[in-house]
Amino acid sequence: MRLKRDLSKEKIGETILAYLETHNVNEVSFSAIANELEIKSQSLYNYFPNIDYLISYTGSLYYEKIRMFITERVIGFSGVDAVRKFMDGFHEYNMSHPKQSQLLFVVPNEKLSTDYLEAKEKLNNILLQILEELVASLDKRIFYSKIIRSGLIGFLILENQHEETFIDNDFEQLMTMMIQKLSEK
User: Fold this and answer.
1) Confidence band (pLDDT; 50, 70, 90) for 2?
2) 4-184, CATH topology level
3) Residue 165: band (very low, low, confident or very high) from pLDDT cuts 50, 70, 90
4) DSSP tag of 24
């Protein structure tokens, strides 16, 4: 058994992210994570009152990992090239972690975790900052940000659910279409 003092919210969340490399989000339970951590499941209640909070917190860690990945890719780029790098980075990271990416659309109630909302906002702020060079109006930047994020999430859902067979060119077409819309602004 692991000593309780070695346990933290972050360690639990990171354990869930590792668990999600091979399991679906709906397989996450206190007993499954306790087994991974080699602790009693009751110990998890010292950090999270229920599974919804646990999933929400883990979602915040996932958003932070996406943000760091994208940040590395957009550095040194601006304008349309930065938008393309943002979109491509989002897609690449999520496709390399398909089971973890479920956290983007299965968080039971994002209001349960201020960490989740803040991490999501930080990622969105990167996109808004990139769009600032291309779109003068804040309202329009927010609008374009929503369109881009909706397109990325929608594409990801379809790919993860295997509803359609996608090829790399399909994602390239999505990026081109969205960027053309930005150019029409």
Assistant:
1) very low
2) Tetracycline Repressor; domain 2 (1.10.357)
3) low
4) -
Q: What is the rounded distance in angstroms from the CA atom of residue 115 to the CA atom of residue 131?
A: 25
Can you tell me the mean pLDDT for 148-164?
Answer: 80
Neighbours of 62 (CB within 10 A): 26
Q: Can you give the residue ranges of every domain in the chain?
A: 4-184
Residue 58: name the closest of 122, 12, 24 by CA: 12
In 3-state terms, what secondary structure has residue 40? coil
Chain centroid offset of residue 92 CA:
12
**72-127 pLDDT tens trace:** 999 999 999 999 999 999 999 998 998 999 898 876 665 667 888 899 999 999 99
Q: Where are the alpha helices (DSSP H) in the chain?
A: 9-19, 30-37, 51-74, 79-96, 103-106, 114-132, 138-161, 168-184
Structure tokens belonging to residue 161: 């659910």
DSSP letter assigned to residue 73: H
Helices 79-96, 138-161: inter-axial angle, 10-degree rounding: 30
pTM value > 0.85: yes
Question: Encoding tokens for residue 174?
Answer: 């999505």
